[in-house]
Write a structure and sequence with these properties.
Largest sheet: 5 strands, antiparallel
Strand content: 15-25%
Distance between the termini: 46 Å
Helix content: 40-55%
CATH topology of the largest domain: Aminoglycoside 3'-phosphotransferase, Chain: A, domain 2
Number of strands: 10
């Protein structure tokens, strides 16, 4: 989707380093997902994560093209790091004192941000146990506890995970029904679940104890473990929504036997609503709609799209539509 060549991104990264007073630092390409990332190794030994905000797929959103959106992400991350007790990456300001650096190129402006490097190995299923599940519950609880009390700065703007978002994700999947990648009956099942989720969102008035800023992408790939301590990274999808959205993603990445210890730890910092089980399961289905949309145009993920759409509809959404729990007892 980008008109830039890889060499362009290396040039942009090098220009950005000058704005952070790090000219001459070495750059090592990491990956492209919602942004293009480089590890920066400074002369004094300090390391950083440099992000050029060009997403791999349009489904990852356009927040990277908005300096206001990016600044808002880093304002919250900076506040969380200072007062939540969590070990987080430190947002870096450029020489002008700003969190977002805009580099002008012949193909248009590109936004760049930089974070301090956080040590740790990627958290994987084989590292999972009661202690790590408890730590992840604490992380989610502390994030939501902070969000429920933090006063938003003027101009703060982030995307929403609301009824309109879930409906839009469902609508984008229609093309895969037309070409046969998603079974029509499965799509109708997802459509019913989405309508029910929308009713849940519109039928009640959420308080700051239930609704606010979310990490928005709390899966294993955004967790590190360092000397036994679980750490969270990548707030690039942070958004406004119901806190149970984050928990739906978290619990989908934990073996069910560890769900109780996760929830017990979470509740030490943030309360659960009385109907938390149905909400968590509903928001898990909603989060997966976005995952399926991301897969739509990726040729390497088509088999995964077909398989996961079917599983989501038949094993999760169908039971949700019958008001049966798939993770929790009735």
């Amino acid at each position: 989707m980008s008109t830039f060549a890889f060499q362009d991104f290396e040039d942009v990264a090098a220009q950005a380093l000058i704005q952070y007073g790090l000219q001459g630092a070495s750059l090592g390409f990491l990956q492209q997902s919602d942004s293009i990332t480089f590890q920066v190794q400074a002369a004094g030994g300090a390391r950083y994560l440099l992000r050029i905000h060009v997403p791999l797929a349009e489904a990852m959103g356009e927040h990277g093209s908005s300096p206001v959106m990016l600044r808002s992400e880093l304002q919250w991350l900076d506040a969380l790091r200072r007062s939540s007790g969590l070990v987080l990456q430190a947002p870096q300001r450029n020489r002008a004192g700003k969190f977002v650096t805009t580099i002008q190129t012949s193909n248009g402006p590109l936004n760049v941000t930089m974070l301090g490097w956080l040590e740790g190995e990627t958290y994987s299923r084989d590292l999972e146990n009661e202690d790590t599940a408890s730590q992840i519950g604490e992380i989610a609880g502390k994030i939501h506890q902070h969000a429920s009390h933090w006063r938003l700065p003027a101009g703060f703007t982030r995307p929403k995970r609301d009824a309109a978002y879930f409906q839009a994700m469902l609508g984008q999947l229609a093309v895969a029904v037309d070409d046969g990648r998603i079974d029509y009956t499965d799509f109708k099942t997802l459509q019913t679940a989405t309508a029910t989720l929308k009713e849940m969102l519109t039928a009640r008035r959420f308080t700051r104890q239930e609704h606010g800023l979310l990490h928005g992408d709390l899966h294993r790939g955004n967790l590190l473990i360092y000397n036994g301590e679980v750490r969270v990274i990548d707030f690039s999808f942070c958004c406004f929504g119901n806190y149970m959205f984050d928990l739906g993603i978290c619990l989908s990445n934990l073996r069910q036997e560890f769900h109780p210890v996760f929830l017990e730890s979470y509740q030490r910092f943030s309360p659960l609503p009385t109907d938390f089980a149905r909400q968590i399961e509903g928001f898990y289905i909603g989060s997966m709609l976005g995952t399926l949309v991301f897969m739509l145009d990726n040729p390497d993920l088509q088999e995964n799209l077909v398989r996961r759409a079917s599983i989501l509809a038949r094993e999760y959404a169908a039971r949700f539509n019958r008001d049966e729990r798939f993770w929790f007892g009735q």
